[in-house]
């Protein structure tokens, strides 16, 4: 059955009254690239004033929570570090608190400084990542450089603009020679939207390591429930009074469905109208639909 | 039904008498890394003397035919350029003779000099590849560098030890902005055996481009019939009197099956005995099995 498309002030009010915790996707809901979605600042301020909890849930695996906050600050939206939840932080939470990653092991990072910063914040040892030894690779390949290392207990892959053969071969070697070494991807987004186009995303950078190692990776980011487990390890809230808001059926709305949380799809992002209301709609159905998250700003106006 | 395991001189002779053209996988049949398989030199010389055609069929997409010949020469096996057929050459043949690649278009190469050499031999224009501009990439990413280019009519991916984000993003941009631009992979081998271990192979280096571009690639190498089409475009022979010899069920033996050519699996390579004669054998069944291709050397001895 097609989900209700909310349009009136009364429908908005009824929804907002039923929610204590807003889990918000960022790109497509809060902003489109460098532009804040009209009305969103008013909505966020209103919710904060009403004591509602806001958590920005993004698959971005490059930025630490501190960097995500800076992005919000630059856009004039304000945000506390506590409100920011990216897949870099979620991966560190997952390693530290769900997997109880051993203190004497280290994580081989295929990723950038923001991911390392989050691992540091949990005292998780790591190698690779921003180490110039791994970044500044020039062929010819020296095969002897790729040695098994049992101190590596996990390979953690995120967006890494320095991806190269050395990083891939080291990751594969650690995984192949040690069945206890786990393979984790912050997220598997195949593409990355910026500057008005799409470019290879985190999932497309690390799929080669998955393919070569023949491992089934543990994927943290949306739509996987691991992301929700990480959020719930840090934020106490009642899932029945939470709402996941996003513009992407396959990441945001599936994430809500996998986590048993109601969902609100906003249009004007990546989902065309006919995927919801067309003759052959997507099997992924949100609980509610509305045009723009900023439209809730009408609730801040006097009646 | 389990295939016959040939063991006697009489069985060998009967097989050889039925073959005019031997299509030979290299690693695992002719040599193991730097070591020639015992007896193989005698077998090759005997076949050449008997006027049988030998074609070395390898998924190697890095080496030109000239370089493949050098490898054989170094191993003391001798080989003519005509006997060498790698997936780099096969891709150039396919572009030139099957796709009739337009003279005013160019190929964006994610690969190395050997592949460029083969494209040059057919007068196919190309860019990317060994161009230092694409190889020596250092973040930060400049998104404006990735511009659509309608002169690029194909993206051709092979093993490229210089793989980096710039190459992936350019390839994706050309494919995404031009539906007529085709995506070709020389081969999709996920790993690459060398120095006694496995490392990420061609297929694992280009799977990110496939994933990001959401294109169905045209794969040239074994087990795809495109490789046989390319071979048959250059070598005239009767497929009914040909034999594909290899050690890998999924590449070599599938290749024979897809091309309607009899197959001989040799043991001692990557295929364990129980995949053929175990309780739960592979569905890919060779026509014949024998221990080692070098065992045919017995036919060169006097009775």
UniProtKB/TrEMBL annotation, chains A, B:
<protein>
    <recommendedName>
        <fullName>4-nitrophenylphosphatase</fullName>
        <ecNumber>3.1.3.41</ecNumber>
    </recommendedName>
</protein>
<keyword id="KW-0479">Metal-binding</keyword>
<feature type="active site" description="Proton donor">
    <location>
        <position position="27"/>
    </location>
</feature>
<dbReference type="GO" id="GO:0004035">
    <property type="term" value="F:alkaline phosphatase activity"/>
</dbReference>
<dbReference type="Pfam" id="PF13344">
    <property type="entry name" value="Hydrolase_6"/>
</dbReference>
<keyword id="KW-0378">Hydrolase</keyword>
<feature type="binding site">
    <location>
        <position position="247"/>
    </location>
    <ligand>
        <name>Mg(2+)</name>
    </ligand>
</feature>
<dbReference type="GO" id="GO:0008967">
    <property type="term" value="F:phosphoglycolate phosphatase activity"/>
</dbReference>
<dbReference type="GO" id="GO:0046872">
    <property type="term" value="F:metal ion binding"/>
</dbReference>
<feature type="binding site">
    <location>
        <position position="25"/>
    </location>
    <ligand>
        <name>Mg(2+)</name>
    </ligand>
</feature>
<dbReference type="InterPro" id="IPR006357">
    <property type="entry name" value="HAD-SF_hydro_IIA"/>
</dbReference>
<dbReference type="InterPro" id="IPR023214">
    <property type="entry name" value="HAD_sf"/>
</dbReference>
<keyword id="KW-0460">Magnesium</keyword>
<dbReference type="Pfam" id="PF13242">
    <property type="entry name" value="Hydrolase_like"/>
</dbReference>
<feature type="binding site">
    <location>
        <position position="27"/>
    </location>
    <ligand>
        <name>Mg(2+)</name>
    </ligand>
</feature>
<feature type="binding site">
    <location>
        <position position="222"/>
    </location>
    <ligand>
        <name>substrate</name>
    </ligand>
</feature>
<dbReference type="InterPro" id="IPR006349">
    <property type="entry name" value="PGP_euk"/>
</dbReference>
<feature type="active site" description="Nucleophile">
    <location>
        <position position="25"/>
    </location>
</feature>
<dbReference type="InterPro" id="IPR036412">
    <property type="entry name" value="HAD-like_sf"/>
</dbReference>
<dbReference type="GO" id="GO:0005737">
    <property type="term" value="C:cytoplasm"/>
</dbReference>
């Amino acid at each position: 059955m097609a989900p209700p498309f909310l349009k009136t002030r009364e429908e908005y009010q009824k929804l907002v009254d039923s929610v204590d915790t807003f889990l918000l996707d960022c790109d497509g809901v809060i902003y489109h690239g460098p532009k804040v979605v009209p009305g969103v600042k008013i909505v966020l301020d209103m919710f904060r004033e009403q004591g509602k909890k806001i958590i920005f849930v993004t698959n971005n695996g490059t930025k630490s929570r501190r960097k995500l906050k800076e992005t919000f600050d630059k856009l004039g939206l304000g945000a506390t570090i506590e409100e920011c939840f990216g897949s870099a932080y979620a991966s560190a939470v997952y390693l530290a608190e769900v997997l109880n990653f051993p203190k004497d092991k280290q994580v081989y990072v295929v990723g950038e400084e923001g991911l390392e910063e989050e691992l540091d914040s949990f005292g998780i040892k790591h190698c690779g990542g921003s180490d110039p030894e791994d970044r500044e690779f020039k062929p010819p390949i020296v095969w002897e450089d790729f040695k098994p290392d049992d101190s590596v207990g996990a390979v953690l892959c995120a967006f890494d603009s320095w991806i190269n053969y050395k990083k891939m071969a080291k990751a594969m070697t650690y995984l192949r020679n040690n069945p206890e070494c786990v393979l984790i991807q912050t997220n598997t987004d195949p593409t990355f939207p910026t500057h008005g186009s799409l470019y290879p995303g985190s999932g497309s950078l690390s799929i080669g390591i998955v393919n070569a190692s023949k491992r089934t990776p543990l994927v943290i980011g949306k739509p996987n429930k691991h992301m929700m487990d990480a959020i719930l390890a840090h934020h106490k809230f009642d899932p029945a009074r939470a709402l996941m808001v996003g513009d992407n059926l396959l990441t945001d709305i599936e994430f809500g469905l996998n986590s048993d949380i109601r969902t609100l799809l906003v249009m004007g992002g990546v989902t065309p109208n006919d995927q919801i209301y067309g003759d052959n709609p997507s099997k992924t159905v949100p609980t509610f639909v509305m045009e723009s998250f900023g439209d809730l700003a009408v609730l801040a106006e006097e009646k």
